[in-house]
Amino acid sequence: MDLWQLLLTLAVAGSGDAFPGSEATPALLVRGSQSLPRVNPGLETNSSGKPKFTKCRSPELETFSCHWTDGVHHGLQSPGSIQLFYIRRSTQEWTQEWKECPDYVSAGENSCYFNSSYTSIWIPYCIKLTSNGGTVDQKCFSVEEIVQPDPPIGLNWTLLNISLTGIHADIQVRWEPPPNADVQKGWIVLEYELQYKEVNETQWKMMDPVLSTSVPVYSLRLDKEYEVRVRSRQRNSEKYGEFSDVLYVTLPQMSPFACEEDFRFPWFLIIIFGIFGLTMILFLFIFSKQQRIKMLILPPVPVPKIKGIDPDLLKIFIFYFLGRKIRRGEHNLSHS
């Protein structure tokens, strides 16, 4: 640790009593908390070797725990000499007194566990580590900012269908929420992200987050084995929890003869499309030749043609009729 960091540490330790039971004025605490970085839930590097916070996490928005490194590599005392103190703001004022960690055991080594009695959501917390009487690290956060749920449990899958080609299949993956997350009563709302890949691949394929505890996965190859995993996060949060145990998906294999036949285009589809195509062609042919077909099916009926009176023929008929009358009269006179 260089001289500047040493002087800064001594200045922080000297500005207020860092031992148990010490008090800090609210104004000084507020000014200090504004300049402090927010908690990073991921693991932080500790190049200085001092005790340092590594992660604060709430699995279900009801309890939380914080973890740190012990810093024994730089001549610090045993991990038991490291103490965590916290302070929180109720209403608009910070409490006057730093309180020591309520439970150093439940969350494991180098940790502090806050059960539901010590956890309040939407209320800012500040925590600090002290070692050998001096403050070595300090963070501020709200509980809802550090929510990272436990992994989902009970992953299983069912086969939905197999493609007509016998190459791909669709499955439905289901799971249960983390046991300690009260999702049924709505205390916490979780989103789930499913990832899958082939067993021999290294790149996971991610699906869009969903609120339900099941999701279909499409177009998986029948000749491959897949790995599936799920993780969750609080809705509208960016921090996911740990992944679930990997679920292995082995799809049923088709017989060689069935596969060989299925690789061909199905005959019944050819017949259906063939009949449909012939029907359309016949319909178009009839539509384009409807006049000619009408002539063949319903030939036209001849229209009777009545000509007008021919004057020449009328004259001949009159002369012929009159001539017969005259001859018949002369014949009657000669016999009388």
From TrEMBL:
One of its GO terms (biological process) is endocytosis. Residues 1-18 form the signal peptide. The chain crosses the membrane at residues 265-287. Gene3D superfamilies: Immunoglobulins. It is a single-pass type I membrane protein. It comes from the Eukaryota. The keyword Signal applies. Residues 151-254 form the Fibronectin type-III domain. One of its GO terms (cellular component) is external side of plasma membrane. Keywords: Cell membrane, Disulfide bond, Endocytosis, Glycoprotein, Membrane, Phosphoprotein, Receptor, Secreted, Signal, Transmembrane, Transmembrane helix. The keyword Disulfide bond applies. GO terms for molecular function: cytokine receptor activity. It is found in: Cell membrane; Secreted. On growth hormone (GH) binding, forms homodimers and binds JAK2 via a box 1-containing domain. The soluble form (GHBP) acts as a reservoir of growth hormone in plasma and may be a modulator/inhibitor of GH signaling. Receptor for pituitary gland growth hormone (GH1) involved in regulating postnatal body growth. On ligand binding, couples to the JAK2/STAT5 pathway. Belongs to the type I cytokine receptor family. Type 1 subfamily. This is Growth hormone receptor. It comes from Camelus ferus (Wild bactrian camel). The gene is GHR.
